[in-house]
Specification:
alpha+beta; Endonuclease III, domain 1; Nucleoside Triphosphate Pyrophosphohydrolase; 2 domains; 3-stranded antiparallel sheet; binds iron/sulfur cluster
């Protein structure tokens, strides 16, 4: 038996309908327009991966104000880059973007083809397609989850990234000189009209050529993916102030979870840990990671945060003891800073939530009371 792929509409008709709509309805976004440089497009596309447009808007402006050129980004300390990324999450994107900026500066020019873009750290198929088509005018698709949904409905397919990328390639052949606009038009259509739930087919420029649009329930396409619930993990962290009222924060290793970000020193308990997060665990973590024996005092409270791959519950406690010396093994840098300054550093949303507990002061006497200081 031979399998045939989905039947795509006439590419010229598709391009004509979509571009006419886009020319009238394109969203006004700061990373669009003739004055936007390829570097700025790269920054925007990296930020937009996994993050909503409205969250990215102010971050994009602040980032480019601090790093207006690829050279400015390449020469900046990574701590400054992570601080500007704060609130966007997925911090490996910031580290990769910083590394990519260095690659571009070392090469002496911005890449001019997809292979060159793909060679940049952190640039996968989607970002290469988006930057290649939008900034460089290359006739290439840029299919993310949003476009995958629109295209799967257009051709009534179960979906799948490779299959929908092939559909996009076939459609872009109808107007290769405007591939960037086609990609951006599909992004806008997916965000404003062909939404995951409740697609507004009567308002859609593709209604006349869309197979799912003619069906009673277009949301049957693409096939729903079964999502597994992210596993729950527990963490503990300690709060130590010095006499000047500055808070101790420590920088995590560059790679791995929250890589390169500052946090309240502590520990993520192992998967399936059965032990309750007690004072012994936190005290051991401070001894292992900071080289000091401390007492664990009152609890400041608990915060939760959900990442794509885990649901974190962080218990925050006061720490009593001598200030740690230089980092021992796990952390690579220690800093003392007032809380409002810590808030401006490269910290995760989880740590930011933990800091908010400190504004309320200790909440519960969870552990033994500290001895005399
Ligand atoms: S006609 Fe409906 S299902 Fe088809 S692309 Fe437009 S909004 Fe989506």
């Amino acid at each position: 038996m031979t399998m045939s792929g989905p039947t795509t509409p006439d590419p010229h008709v598709f391009c004509d309908l979509l571009l006419r709509w886009y020319d009238q309805n394109a969203r006004d976004l700061p990373w669009r327009g003739d004055a936007v440089t390829p570097y700025e497009t790269l920054v925007s596309e990296v930020m937009l991966q996994q993050t909503r447009v409205e969250t990215v808007r102010p971050k994009y402006a602040a980032f480019l104000s601090r790093f207006p050129t690829v050279e400015a980004l390449a020469t900046a300390p990574i701590d400054d880059v992570l601080a500007l990324w704060s609130g966007l999450g997925y911090y490996s994107r910031a580290r990769n973007l910083h590394a990519a900026a260095n690659q571009i500066v070392d090469a002496g020019e911005f890449p001019n083809d997809v292979a060159g873009l793909r060679a940049l750290k952190g640039v996968g198929v989607y970002i290469a397609g988006a930057v290649g088509s939008i900034a460089l005018g290359l006739p290439v698709p840029a299919v993310d989850g949003n476009l995958e949904r629109v295209l799967a409905r257009l051709v009534c397919s179960p979906g799948g990234r490779p299959q929908m990328t092939a559909v996009a390639e076939a459609l872009i052949a109808g107007c290769p000189s405007r591939a960037g606009d086609i990609n951006q038009a599909l992004m806008d259509l997916g965000s404003t009209v062909c939404k995951p739930r409740g697609p507004q087919c009567p308002a859609c420029p593709l209604e006349g050529i869309c197979v799912a649009g003619a069906a009673p329930d277009p949301t049957l396409w693409p096939e729903k993916k079964v999502r597994r619930k992210a596993p729950a993990r527990t963490a503990v962290a300690g709060v130590m102030f010095n006499q000047a009222g500055s808070l101790l924060v420590a920088r995590r290793p560059a790679s791995g979870l929250f890589g390169g970000l500052f946090e309240l020193p502590g520990l993520l308990l192992p998967k399936n840990a059965t032990t309750r997060p007690g004072p012994g665990i936190l005290a051991s973590a401070w001894l292992d990671r900071l080289g000091v024996e401390v007492d664990v005092g009152v609890g400041h409270g608990t915060v939760t945060h959900t990442l794509t791959h885990m649901r974190l519950t962080l218990h925050v406690f006061e720490i009593i003891g001598e200030a740690p010396p230089e980092p021992q093994s796990f952390y690579d840098r220690l800093r003392w800073a007032p809380i409002d300054e810590v808030d401006e550093m490269g910290i995760s949303t989880l740590t930011r939530k933990a800091l908010s507990l400190l504004e309320r002061g200790p909440q519960q006497q969870l552990f033994r009371a500290p001895g005399p200081r």
